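job 3f2a | input accepted
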Amino acid sequence: MSLFGLGGEKLALFAVAVALLALTPGPVWIYLISRTLAQGRRAGYFSLTGVMAGVFVHLLLAAFGLSALLLALPWAFDAIKLAGAAYLLWLAVSTVRGSGFSFTPQPLPPVPDRVLFRQALVASIVNPKVAVFYLSLFPQFVDPALGPVLLQSLALGAVHVTVSTLIDGALVTVAGALAVWFARKPGWLRLQRWFLGSAFGVLAAWLALTPRSHP
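job 3f2a | predicted structure (215 res):
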């Protein structure tokens, strides 16, 4: 069996590689777990959808060769990275502060689904490490002699998105069960805003300090 010139063995090997990556705790785990614990399973699922939509944008950029600019122009990588860190820091402050200027602990209000999706989408797009991941891994599996490189890249990207969605979706499901338990704790309801804001702050620092040379 082959897909756009990619043999089944090569696709299976790629699926294993991305599965191991998805199973490794990292920024995506922090984002999805913190969202789910603080705002429930529905928030986690919509955030997951936004994250995967952002990954798909990176996939298209890599498939069409546009992501190569991140490696050709180091300042572009740093600019996107710092913009992403600034966005996450803004999410951290706005989450803790709420709609006013009080930092007094108080429960998080419901967040519209479209806002959850949009915030996760932007956070995913402004993470240049996703682009570096594609640029580092694709050449090991794509072979121009087997067919169009664009189609092979899209096929590999589809495998990545599918595998990551399944694994991260399971993570959100488990975190959602814990969120139900936490929701019964009055103390947690007062601290969840600070918990989520702190998670965004950690992600901002993580992204800002991430080196370009290690995908």
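job 3f2a | Residues 99-106 have pLDDT under 50 and may be disordered.
job 3f2a | closed
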